[in-house]
Input
Amino acid sequence: MIDFGSVEVSLKLATASTLLLLFIATPLSWWLANTKWRIKPIVEAVTALPLVLPPTVLGFYLLILFNPNSVAGSLWLRITGDTLAFSFVGILIATVIHSLPFAVQPLQAAFESVGRRPVETAASLGANPLDAFATVAVPLAKRGFLTAAVLGFAHSLGEFGVVLMVGGNIPDKTRVISIDIYTSVEVLDYRQAHILSIGMLCFSFVVLAALFVVNRRYSLNDEAR
Amino acid sequence: MMKLAKRLELDIGIEFPGFRLQIDQATAIDGVLGLFGPSGAGKSTILRIVAGVESSATGKLKFDGEVWQDTSNHLFVKPFKRAIGCVFQSPQLFPHLSVSGNLEYGYRRKRGRRGPELTDVLHAMDLKPLLSRPVDALSGGERQRVALGRALLAAPRLMLLDEPMAALDDARKSEIMPYLERVVGDFGIPSIFVSHSVAEVSALSTDAWILENGRVTGCGLSELPSTYGPVIRLSATVVGESKSGLLICRIGDDEILAKSTQHLERESLVNLMLLESSVLFAATDCPGMPKAGAIRGVVDSVAQSENSGEIRIEFKTKGGNFELLIPPGLASDFEISKGQPACAIVANPPLAERI
Output
């Protein structure tokens, strides 16, 4: 009997994480693309840390942070009556942090290539900064948004180390696809592992291929201009 | 249209590595203020400061009685509240919007200011045939017209034109010129125009600042030619005003369109100052030429330089004599002899000043 509980958890996690990622990464990338502050490289390094840091290290610190005896953990427990560690919200926070560079970097690159000029032009036509951002910068950076969303979603869907550290392996709650595959192999349920693995492989390939096709079409359009 | 002079007061400085700009200058803009100078003189920087996008500039900036920047009082009016129309070398049209989307962008955001009407702008800039076209299907000149129309529709109090013709070839330049003139002529919007071309500045402007190394080294259109290139002075009589607002001046039987910053009555005697580089010599009496635009006369003397091979012609007209040099390469094609009728074609309206 194949159990698709982990697929549901993973899809829920990846969807919520993608929405949160775009919400956080959009202002952060815009700021990074435009700031002249000296602390910019520091912020960039912090944002990029999850790319190089072993997921277990990130997971370990988050676990300490989520501990009901810590400030953040106890505050969360008092407000919601639930612990952050070993909960869906806990793995969601961990996933968002771990996937942040996958959303920030393409968005920052897109905003940088849009440049200041279109926004300054919009301002000269009477658009306030938020208006200019929404009506000029965002539409011009749509390719960056697409890449950020796709990479963020795909990366969240394949999350393993951080989730295992922070969320454990609770069926229908924190057991995601990759953990399910790992567990299935451990108990020699190769059928479950095969089905989930081939699903992940196909999905990842299709998503990336689609992204490259769309990006190619955009760049051909840009060249035609 | 009635034009009211708007006062621009600048007491402002900015520093970049290797460049310092310090301007303390005030002027009433009644038409177009030309900023002229070599590249790197600080012309575009001044425009960026006035537009409010050069955040590191310090000092005081006032336009039409409104303080836009006063660093000592921590006052800075945000660019989108200044109501400035900008047209730059590259038209900066929004590629994700259609031509009409671009035109509407500023029109929808003019915050109740009264400005040019949509139909007037469409007509003046000949935009109707372009409305349904995508932005990337427009030529360079068409893009610039859309950019001008878009800026006008946002009801600007001041227009900043930064080398709007620099990216166009000569034919396109002369196409866009009338549209630039209409910005001030039809809509009465005071403008600052930046160029490194004397011809462009003198053709469009009613006043000028000459810039060098971040400083204003001269003011007024009459400074332009004498500072930048040899000038020919001829005497003429004012006989009227053209539809485009230029003076009609008569030399002998010929008429020349000229501009002036002074108020000149009919029959006033004036000095016309022509840039030597904007005068073309023709070794005929130009039978096909219309009456306006050419000065007819006779060749008084011809001399060829031994070293350089260029030909020096003394040209006699009813407005006075002047010398013209014909470069050695071209000189061999000319058959010029003393006493033959010839004419000088004036490519740009010269400046007229009361004698």
